[in-house]
Amino acid sequence: MFNFIFIFNTLTLIQFSSAAYGSTVHYLEHGETFHFEPYSKGLELQTFCYKGRKKSIIYIWQSVLFQLNHPNEDYTLYEGSTPENVELEYSKNSHFWSTNIFMVKQKSFKINPFNTTCIGVISGDSYTVQISVINMDFWKLLMLGIGTFIFLSADTLSKNTFFHYVTGITFGVCASVLVLIYFISKIFPRKPFMYGVLGMGWSLVIYISRLLWENIQVVVKYYKFYVTWYILFTGLVSFILCYRWGPVENQRTINLIKWSLQCVGLCLIFNSSSYQEAATAQIVILLISYHLPQKWKLAPKTYWKKKFPPKIKLLTNEEYYQQGVVETAKALNSLRQYCSSPECNQWETVLKLSDVKRFASFMEGNSHLSDEEVLEYDSFIQNLTDDEEHNELTDEED
């Protein structure tokens, strides 16, 4: 037994020493690229650090991208705030029996631009490491916009039928993996094992979802037929269940959905920036503006209108005439529609009229004015125009 322990400790020490040999620290800045070439056949730990920058409001949506160009998946990453923390993480996980089935290897990921971050890479192959600074991260801006929209629209979305079906179908497709795990657990006779599988169900769902997200292109390319039919089948079952129970009608349940959506929106806003103080300030401003009385929100607009009233544009004679023709035609058409509708009592209306034939002609689409009225109106306009011209000539002579 003593010999086994001695051999075991010796192998562990040899493994740690061989990997730690040649361990160096490289401080990289924006645009810098480091090419690593192994000096021996053993594994070598190389630590790459980004010092970070001082926090400023102009860098609120900045991101730093760590890119590892490796020919295969035979590598391990360790993250820490200092090189010593990276070596400590490596020493904790350097034993050959310590494996994590939920670890998904990423060759490109974002780090905090305001903190010192160190990434340890252990590999026996050649690879390249690069640091890129994104001054305006589009995804963070998109996350901020989506979070703000969800928070402000939570009241409407919680009562929307379409949103009810979409979320129900989406949740059903994702949760169907958990149902699949449940039926698989029925194969095993021992109950403790089944409870363990169910307890790990959501962890497996998250792990599988992460794997699918990391390899979405490969899955869609080679398993497109199965993925399509799986989503269609589970989506159809989810739609049937949502249709059977119908949209939520209980007001307390609607309130819970609304508050949940608002919490999701605030979480998205908080995670939309690595500058947590600025993100918190955005949340505070949003909450204050959301709960302000309506008259307080309209006060700046009212004050601006009083201080700078809008200029009123007067109509010309031609514009006035055209507008009168258009509006008169609309009003006459609306009157014809009303008189033809069941809301109007035609016989009572006819009894009040002095010229029934003229009313009938108007309902058939003819003009509502007689020839004498048109002639009288034209004469009045002509006289009015002559008087205006005469007054203008008189003013000019004076």
Question: Would you mind describing this structure in some detail?
Answer:
The protein has 398 residues and is of the alpha+beta class. The protein folds into two domains: 2-132, Jelly Rolls, CATH 2.60.120; 140-291, no CATH class. The protein contains 16 helices and eight strands. Helix 3 (138-152) packs antiparallel against helix 10 (251-270) and helix 5 runs antiparallel to helix 6 (191-199).
* Spans where pLDDT lies below 50 across 5 or more residues: 1-22, 96-104
Please write the string of helix (H) and strand (E) elements.
HEEEEEHEEEHHHHHHHHHHHHHH
Q: Beta-strand percentage?
A: 5-15%
Strand order of the largest sheet: 1-3-7-5
Determine the N-to-C terminus distance. Answer: 130 Å
Q: Largest sheet, if any?
A: 4 strands, mixed
Structural class: alpha+beta
Rg (CA only): 38 Å
- Percentage of residues assigned to helices: 55-70%
> What spatial form do the alpha-carbon principal axes imply?
elongated
Counting DSSP H or I runs of 4 or more residues, the number of helices is 16
How many beta-strand segments?
A: 8
Q: What's the mean pLDDT score?
A: 78
Total number of domains? 2
